[in-house]
Write a structure and sequence with these properties.
Pfam families: Acyltransferase
Largest sheet: 7 strands, mixed
GO molecular function: 1-acylglycerol-3-phosphate O-acyltransferase activity
Keywords: Acyltransferase, Transferase
InterPro entries: Plipid/glycerol_acylTrfase
Order of helices and strands: HEEHEHEHEHEHEH
Shape: globular
Number of domains: 1
Structural class: alpha/beta
Strand content: 15-25%
Mean pLDDT: 91
GO cellular component, one term: plasma membrane
Strand order of the largest sheet: 1-7-6-2-5-3-4
Number of strands: 7
Distance between the termini: 36 Å
Radius of gyration: 17 Å
Length: 234
């Protein structure tokens, strides 16, 4: 078990009860290795995702470091919880975004586990499938040697829908999390890092996430990633 500091312990005391709103069923959790850097790539469907995902990672003996919106670090108390637990603020559409990736890369090289939601926000796909993702995840994956592990989660949106604001904790819902095999990116390493390469790698990673979600939902996914009118910036 990775050592937990004061704020990690405090955060766990809050996040564990939040995660109990759903009955989590974990598939292939042993694919999360117990030590060394890991980049965990996940879909995002509800504001309830971070506590659920943090608990699932913590139960595998790791302390999750989230790439989180910078605005969350300005919320009283919450900024101490996520900041003290090692989360990394992301400042969008500014030079600060690059600083966030550098900080995440440093954490991976130090042997930490970093969780990233490449979509940047809760998906706007009407049926909850992953939407077109930002390419920061590809840059991070290619600049480090840490294994990149895809994972998908389903069920949190049925508890709390961030867009409709519907909160339905009862009856208790099932939340499935399925962890995939590390993605082999050897074919992409050593090539010039262009926008085209970053987009290709991003889509490869999110396709793996989407395929895991297909396994959970047992229904076909759309052929293309949903792109909102105002598409997420790369």
């Amino acid at each position: 078990m990775e050592k937990s500091g004061f704020w990690v312990t405090v955060t766990a005391l809050i996040f564990y009860p939040l995660s109990w709103m759903g009955k989590t069923v974990l598939h292939n959790g042993d694919r999360i290795r117990r030590e060394g850097g890991v980049l965990l790539v996940m879909n995002h469907i509800s504001h309830l995702d971070p506590p659920v995902d943090a608990v699932f990672v913590h139960r595998q003996g790791r302390v999750p470091r989230f790439l989180a919106k910078e605005s969350l670090f300005r919320v009283p108390l919450f900024k101490y919880l996520i900041g003290g637990a090692g989360s990394i603020p992301v400042t969008r559409r500014s030079s600060g975004a690059a600083d966030s990736l550098h900080a995440a890369g440093a954490a991976l090289r130090e042997g930490k586990l970093v969780v990233i939601y490449p979509e940047g926000t809760i998906t706007r796909d009407p049926d909850g499938w992953p939407m077109r993702a930002r390419t920061g995840v590809a840059r991070l994956a290619l600049e480090t040697e840490a294994p990149v592990i895809p994972a998908a989660r389903w069920g949190t949106k049925q508890i709390f829908d961030g867009y409709t604001k519907k909160f339905r904790p009862f009856p208790r819902k099932r939340v499935d999390i399925r962890v995939g095999e590390p993605v082999d990116l050897s074919a992409y390493r050593g090539r010039p890092v262009t926008n085209e390469l970053l987009r290709e790698v991003t889509d490869v990673l999110m396709t793996r996430v989407r395929d895991l979600l297909v396994e959970i939902r047992q229904e076909p996914a759309p052929a293309e990633f949903y792109a909102p009118r105002r598409a997420p910036a790369d």
